Amino acid sequence: MSQRSRHQSTWNQGLDNMAAPSGNTRGVMERSIRDRAPPLLTDLYQFTMAYAYWRAGRHQEPAVFELFFRDNPFGGGFSLFAGLHDCLLFLRSFHFTDEDVEFLRSVLPPATDPDFFKFLRGLDCSGVTLRSVPEGTVVFARVPLMEVAGPLAVVQLLETSLLCLVNYASLVCSNAARFRLAAGPSRRLLEMGLRRAQGPDGGLTASRYTHIGGFDLTSNVQAGFLFGIPVAGTMAHSYVTSFTSLEEVWPQTLVALNGDPDPVDFISLTKGWLSRVCELLRAEPGKIREGELAGFLSYAITYPQNFLPVIDSYSVGCSGLLNFCAVALALCELGYRPVGVRLDSGDLCRQSVDVRRVFRLCREHFSTSAFDSLIIVGTNNISEQSMDELNKMENEIDVVGVGTHLVTCTKQPSLGCVYKLVEVRGRPRMKISEDPKKSTVPGRKSVYRLVDAEGHPFLDLVCLAVESPPVAGVSLSCYPLGSDDSPASVTPAQVACLRQEVFIKGQVTHPLCSAAETRAKVQSSLQTVHPRHKRLHEPDSYTVALSKKLHHLVTETQKGSSNSSNFLLAN
């Protein structure tokens, strides 16, 4: 594996040159967010509520909303927070155009006060403050990830767009991290789900955030352009099956890499090698597909330094592998280094072992060292389960391509992030539901991650914003969510404030990170999490707890809500 990993090709050169997007593409990204998430990309009731606030004279009241999710996705023990980059660009560019306002006139009731539309035309996020967990951080259910504070009407209008930008990004990023955990640290992962994604924006978002979550490569060229993600690909079966005979190969010659200017008849050279390969493997020449060989020859002549065909268009053992070896040996004779093969059907593990065995036979028999570095790419409707099973079986697969199950998140189609009001005019607000899981935690808060002596996070503590932060080495009492409402005593070895101010008065106050930089943060954050919380199956639950004062506020608010004096028709 180590020798194959040094193969200089498209498959690793991109990883060695993971350039951030250029200044021009950063501008494209900002324009893209205005196109993808304009202020009208929201639910109608946001505007009807904003009008009601405005008409009542409440639109400027200071309010605070929180964004969080209620359950860790995929039955796992964690999630990754993603989408903050786009949220910041969205907030920075938030404003209504004349065209936007005219459309709103047409959909809101005719009796809507015309001055409300003047209000909307001048609206922006200059009064909004966003405190957030850093993008790429491992996060857990019920922890407030983002706090959005500002004038009531504005922060209400932001709800749907922010949820849209965070929900899928965090979900698919978390899905990618689980695939990475299932694959192990060394196997390369190729995201190839664009054609299966929910539309162009879903495909582009998936490519970006699966890379951040742990995938090495993407097939999506636009994602490579915008986000600096290494791009790779092989060929489709249609290319192979479009050929029927060697007469269709053109040109038929190839110049050797050593500088000899005389072109070599590449077809004749390959046919000679094919006879030797068939003799070595005791294969039947009559079962070899001429059209497949023609397709391989044509591609190899076009891309002699990047020859990686799919070899299962017909039969791997009877045709595809033999044709590949013949073309690859011919390339080696001319000084080129073929890259490898792709398997896309059948038992990938067994076939990869058979293919590697043939590569070793050719290397030994023909003294061709380039066959040591050939890679095997496996693609065949790979799921997290099949990836996990692949790791437990003998196989020789170097790169795994994943599409449908990755980008569509088939195990769980939505993360279920919510955006809830927690404070108005400095007063805590709480949603009290018949379903306890849907009740919210009132008040403006701070969030701290408590770390044990081994450097592993063991508890996220949610406190009121006015409370003093916990101190390392000092015992504290807290109330774990989902427990029997009894306090727990913990002593952290380290304490980290989980959220930071990233947007103040219309300005982004924290550096915007590239996909590569956020990807590095993900890996760093995941490494700190204890393995028991990262298990793909039956992980241990991570503890999220309320401080003593916040728990008291929740209890008192719940009691107050049941007091008859709060009801309009109470006697």
Automatic annotation (TrEMBL):
MF terms from GO for this chain are: glycosyltransferase activity; nicotinate phosphoribosyltransferase activity
Q: In which pathway does it act?
A: Cofactor biosynthesis; NAD(+) biosynthesis; nicotinate D-ribonucleotide from nicotinate: step 1/1
Where on the tree of life does the source sit, at the highest rank? Eukaryota
Domain (Nicotinate phosphoribosyltransferase C-terminal): give its ranges.
Answer: 444-553
The UniProt record lists the Nicotinate phosphoribosyltransferase N-terminal domain at: 40-167
What does the record say about PTM? Transiently phosphorylated on a His residue during the reaction cycle. Phosphorylation strongly increases the affinity for substrates and increases the rate of nicotinate D-ribonucleotide production. Dephosphorylation regenerates the low-affinity form of the enzyme, leading to product release.
Coiled-coil intervals: none
Q: What is its EC number?
A: 6.3.4.21
Q: Which parts of the sequence are annotated with region: Disordered?
A: 1-24
Q: Which Pfam families match?
A: NAPRTase_C, NAPRTase_N
Q: Which reaction does it catalyse?
A: 5-phospho-alpha-D-ribose 1-diphosphate + nicotinate + ATP + H2O = nicotinate beta-D-ribonucleotide + ADP + phosphate + diphosphate
Q: Biological process GO annotation list? A: NAD+ biosynthetic process via the salvage pathway
Q: Which GO terms describe its cellular component?
A: cytosol
Which keywords has UniProt assigned to this entry? Glycosyltransferase, Ligase, Phosphoprotein, Pyridine nucleotide biosynthesis, Transferase
Family the entry assigns: Belongs to the NAPRTase family.
What does this gene product do?
Catalyzes the first step in the biosynthesis of NAD from nicotinic acid, the ATP-dependent synthesis of beta-nicotinate D-ribonucleotide from nicotinate and 5-phospho-D-ribose 1-phosphate. Helps prevent cellular oxidative stress via its role in NAD biosynthesis.
Show the NCBIfam families listed in the entry: NAPRTase_put
The name on file for this protein is Nicotinate phosphoribosyltransferase
